[in-house]
Amino acid sequence: MRRPLRNLLVAALALTGSLALAGCFGDSEPTVGIAPYVQENVGGAGRLTQYALYVTNSGAYREDVTASPVNVPEGWNVTLSNASLSLRGGGAGRPLVVNVVPPTNASLGRYTFGVQVGDRTVSLGLRLVALPEEEARPRVGALVRTTGFYDNGTIFYHDMVEVMGRTDLRKGILGNDTDVEPLKVYVGGQRRIPPPEPYANAGYVPVIPGFDEALHGLRPGETRVVHVPPDLAYTYPGNEKHRLYGQALNFLIVLERVDEIPDETTTGSCPLPVCPTG
To answer: Within a 10 A sphere around the Cβ of 28, how many other Cβ atoms?
Structure first.
């Protein structure tokens, strides 16, 4: 009786070990989830467009999950900010940034490509259009939509319809599903210093330096993803009580419009930032 009992115990231990290894190295059921903050973008030929993906691991073990672009149109340059993601199980998440540059001779129209992470693949769309020549630059107004998220992918703010009501994205205490009005930014402004009166009267405000810098050179319709270190965000003397103090932040930014408001106090009512002289 002892030998059969011992054999049964050995078999049980072997089965337990094989199940544990299966959990470590891949279950039959997919454990990786991929949720684009925005799945469809607009861009221009030869210009950078960026996507942010929220990647999760529902498994029970830490895994180094490899990501790679797939089904990329010929001649396109598609790269990932971090192709290897270390994800602890139980739903932990990480953001993944996708950088896309179509060739300068690419035809206008809609294109698709994919990003594979572990055992999952997500499809992304990019509609190439003739972008306006105007760009966001210092001393003009910019109408932008944005989603802000921590380094673990959790959203702390958004004003984007694409994010409203989403259950595949993790939202923190500052998450917002009601206010989807674009943000009015006075580009090149300084913290706690009001912009020129025409922009201030129209509701334009300066923003944190890391966000502001990401707007420079952006054309209406384009999307950028920027990582902002604490010292370029809300971490500065006198701001210690701000709930984002000490935090590194990430923003997905879509530029909707560039505004140059005429300064009616200047002779000839010319647009900022420069008026003709003489």
So the answer is: 6
